Amino acid sequence: MAPERETGRERTPAGATAGTRPRARLDQPRPPRRRLLPEWDPEAFGRLSERIARFLGTGRFIVWMTIVIIVWVLWNIFAPSDLKFDNYPFIFLTLMLSLQASYAAPLILLAQNRQDDRDRVNLEQDRKQNERSIADTEYLTREIAALRIGLGEVATRDWIRSELQDLMKELEERGDGHGVFPAERSPGRDVEDR
């Protein structure tokens, strides 16, 4: 293998797209693009929307909104005419309440979507935990069944006692009828019996 020489000039790609644009290097990240819209952290925005939605769903918000509306209406009815900023049909108040509702509804929906995502993750984790619990229970059930089968083959105290009693009876019956076991007889007597 011969080492490659650098000739001092760069290779130019050949083909239809060779002259239109430079080749992108795949081993390096792309340079950041300029964005027309500002960037924001979706997690931070989601947390803020949840905080606002929680506040909008409280009695404290309703009380404060009621107080603001009452003060608004009373001010625009009883204040001197040069200090009034929203006369009787209260168009500006209606506009402000519509604006508040138009922002509150999407924020509440965003908070609900985030809660649905969390619930979905929790349900998936619960399902996996239940599957593991079922598998563990089935394993333990099989182990208990195997132990029961194994215990069925193990000699118990009562079974051994009954077997020993049967052997004692059998040995007594084989003996000469005097209750002496063959092992307890003297060797001379054994010869006499023959």
Number of helices: 5
Uncertain segments of ≥5 residues (pLDDT<50)?
none
Mean pLDDT across every amino acid position = 83
CA-based shape: elongated
Q: Count of DSSP E strands? A: 0
Give the helix level as a range of percent. Answer: 55-70%
Return the structural class: mainly alpha
User: H/E element string?
Assistant: HHHHH
Distance between the termini: 101 Å
Taking all Cα atoms into account, the compactness measure Rg is 47 Å
- What is the quaternary state of this protein? single chain
Q: Hey, roughly how much beta strand do the residues contain?
A: under 5%
Give a short account of the largest sheet: none
Question: How is this fold's topology laid out?
Answer:
Blueprint: H1 42-56, H2 59-78, H3 91-153, H4 157-174, H5 187-193
Task: Give a quick summary of the entry.
This protein has 194 residues and is mainly α. The chain contains five helices and no strands.
How would you describe this protein?
Helix 1 packs across helix 3 (91-153). The chain contains five helices and no strands. It has helices spanning 42-56, 59-78, 91-153, 157-174, 187-193. The chain has 194 residues and is an all-alpha fold. The mean pLDDT is 83. The chain is 63% helix and 0% strand. The chain starts with 41 loop residues before the first helix and ends with a helix.
